[in-house]
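Hi there,

I know you've been waiting on this one. I reran it after we fixed the sequence typo, so this is the corrected version. Both the input and the resulting structure follow.
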Amino acid sequence: MATPMPTGAKAMAAISFAVVGWLTANAYVPNMPEETAVGAFRELTAVLGAIIGWKVMGNSVGKGYLGAVGSGWKTVVVLVFFALLFFGIYEMLRQSVKMRYDGPFEAVVDVFNQMLTRSVPLGSVGVILVMAVGGAVAGILTENASRRWR
């Protein structure tokens, strides 16, 4: 089976959702607990946004602009899920190096606990607004790129 060629829509999806990922992380940071180090959180979320934008939104074009808004929102939800999963696994690995778990099952369960704990600040108005507007705009930009660059 041949690998599908890169398209302008996939490139636009990667770029726009990298921006959406960075902006969402930037809106999320003020809601994080004081003791949490930010580090490369924004940059890693932007890279994850580019990958997910390419894979999810890049393949969801051709449904019109209204469909593109829905696909953009879907892509943002997928981005947030995988960002929570990625950073939950990262935190679990940090804790496991310190021998904080009694066994592997406890470590795996803690990944989902970390995801739940980190999802609470997502409920702020600023983060929801950035995700909703950013997903819609990125979806429209991707649909427009699909129509222009075939």
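Quick highlight: The chain has five helices and no strands.

Best,
R. S.
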